[in-house]
Write a structure and sequence with these properties.
Length: 88
């Protein structure tokens, strides 16, 4: 929860009707993050700890902490595997 997360600079992203779509220039893969994923991606503009990210999302959405943690960790794991974020 104390790991620092940030977006990789090689990712080209654009806001399309409130949802972020992006392309990994290195792989050529295209992604549509949906509404919640887009909020998380926006929060990753500057380095942030996982815990701070979860706290910001809990203020925005009415979900349990456990649900938020589970969904954030699943999202971060997926974008990490795809090479879209850096973890320190």
């Amino acid at each position: 929860m104390t790991s620092m997360i940030t977006r990789k600079e090689e990712i080209t992203a654009s806001n399309m009707d409130g949802e972020i779509v992006m392309m990994n220039i290195e792989t050529g893969n295209y992604y549509n993050l949906g509404k919640t994923g887009s909020v998380i991606w926006t929060l990753l503009e500057n380095p942030i700890t996982v815990d701070a990210l979860i706290e910001k999302l809990l203020k925005k959405y009415h979900v349990s902490r456990q649900q938020c943690e589970d969904e954030v960790m699943a999202f971060l794991n997926e974008v990490y595997i795809e090479g879209l974020i850096m973890v320190r």
